[in-house]
Amino acid sequence: MTEYLVYDVFSDKAFGGNQLAIFPDATTLPEQDLQSIAAEFNFSEVTFVYPPKDASHRARVRIFTPTMEVPFAGHPVIGTAVALSDIGESGAMTLELGVGPLKCHAEDGEARFSTSVPLKVEATPRVALVAQALSINEQDICTEVHAPTLAGVGLPFTITEVTSRDVLAKCKTNIDAFEEGAKAYPAGLDFAQFVYCKTDHGIAARMFAPLDNISEDPATGSACAALGALLRHITGTDQDLIIRQ
Length: 245
Description:
By secondary structure, the protein is α+β, with helices and mostly antiparallel strands. It has helices at residues 34-41, 74-87, 127-134, 165-169, 175-184, 221-235, and strands at residues 5-9, 18-23, 45-50, 59-64, 69-70, 91-97, 100-107, 110-114, 120-123, 141-142, 149-152, 157-162, 193-199, 202-209, 214-217, 243-244. Strands 1, 2, 3, 4, 5, 6, 7 and 8 form an eight-stranded mixed β-sheet that branches.
């Protein structure tokens, strides 16, 4: 039997936050079973941990959604780092991911990471298609700072600013539009949508990837990192963001 752990990431309460299954030693699992295991859990992601290729690093980590392997995702990095801290040495560690080595620090149930992966802008999806995918009106999408932009720091999302929290709250997924978008703009997840608005207290956001069995992600670290990088790229100013998702 191969042991696994289930962590609730970005939460201090059981059954809160974003669920993550972690296999701290996946060396005995057949390669052909990894995707099926992730689909069986049906969490946003499952991580499989292996010995590192570089002996100075802590571990090599592979990340799977219910439908595919991805090179990077935020809450799996945080959860896996905390799990490795809980079952071994805490403190600084380097994890090997599909985007390369990532420096992390985990201690006392908390973790952080920094990435130097550059922002990659893939496309600017049509405003009308994004609005259709989110079941909102085109005028609900704010384009003063940027149009809907497919971009990421290892895992791309269509990043879209909307005009208000009311608009953010009424977003609902339109599967036909997601399928059209996935065909028109293939990159990473299947037309995953990271939608946000500015508030008096920072940023409010939601993330939808229904074609990847992620109806709505409770918290999306990779998308939040991409948003910060995108705003830095557009405005030319450093970003320090508080994001509530």
